[in-house]
């Protein structure tokens, strides 16, 4: 009886491996449950955001017209050196391809693409299609084509077709950077009278930088005031900050046009004060764009700053002052470094939103104040050139991603330093 009691009181060995397996299984089940909860969101983002983005970006390198509408010609041109006129079989293949494309109503798209390479290519294709089929079949298709139009005896037109024989091309991306490929295939700058996009990108980034800097200067003291005021006053002031979100951007831009025009309230008020003799040009120029953009972007700078400042104890600064540090120096050395995260987030948000803005510069700016988004809209809505539109948009997206990576790196380095 005593031995049985002693045996019962001795602790039995624990199966450690079994407990670990159960723990791993429970963790795996929890992870699967968590993944199942966010799976609908992942699918939504992939279908609604990622897939359309990839499809649109693909258009910046798409070049399907020549390869799709002149398949026999592209195959026959594979062995051509691209210097002199192509051989006889290329002309014969082109005759068959042009006739087929014309019968299928595809010649217009082909002509539009090649016409962007050499002006007049569309009329060349249309005139040639009107003369086909060649009946009776000529002994030399090469000579017959040259007799139809002497441009078929110019190697430049064949070289343009040869350069576009691939279904993918870097031409749109090169054009959006004021670059092109010469006859030898080397990347060179376009002529000065055709170079516009580099200056547009510089203007876009400069204007966005100015808007971001002005927003920071205006938003920092306001966010500090919001963080230090009593709750009732701070809530009232926060309503004023959020109020613009309840008004359409188009309405706000129209209001600035009314305020800043030659006979607007601002010029009239300045004239009544005797500060000016004639109305100032405050709208339809860069000043008007800056004023309206700062007004629109200011809440996006205030909110990140406020969220950071609200969590900074005021006792830190008071302690520095009590230890003999002057108020301004204590603010600079104690308070300001703790707001770097809010400054970085606000500046990144405002800058990214500014480089992609379209409505405000289009309505309030002059032709020399338009940003990249204006040209994206132009190629999308006016010329229907999806290649150039997506190339310019893709470069803006690339700039945004680079800025985000730099910001993440700076935030990580700052956390490591503080830690």
TrEMBL record:
SUPFAM superfamilies given in the database record? MetI-like (SSF161098)
Q: Where is the signal peptide?
A: none
Q: Which GO terms describe its cellular component?
A: plasma membrane
Q: Does the keyword Transport apply?
A: yes
- What UniProt keywords are attached to this protein's entry? Cell membrane, Membrane, Transmembrane, Transmembrane helix, Transport
Source taxon at top rank: Bacteria
Q: Which InterPro entries match?
A: MetI-like (IPR000515), MetI-like_sf (IPR035906)
PROSITE patterns named in the record: ABC_TM1 (PS50928)
The ABC transmembrane type-1 domain is annotated at 201-407
Location in the cell reads: Cell membrane
Family annotation (CDD domains):
TM_PBP2
> Is Iron-sulfur set as a keyword in this record?
no
Question: Any one Gene Ontology biological process term?
Answer: transmembrane transport
Q: How does it sit in the membrane?
A: Multi-pass membrane protein
Q: Which residues are listed as membrane-spanning?
A: 35-57, 205-227, 234-259, 287-306, 341-359, 395-413
Q: What's this protein's family per the entry?
A: Belongs to the binding-protein-dependent transport system permease family. CysTW subfamily.
Give the protein's recorded name: Binding-protein-dependent transport systems inner membrane component
Organism whose genome encodes this protein: Tolumonas auensis (strain DSM 9187 / NBRC 110442 / TA 4)
Q: What is the lineage of its organism?
A: Bacteria, Pseudomonadati, Pseudomonadota, Gammaproteobacteria, Aeromonadales
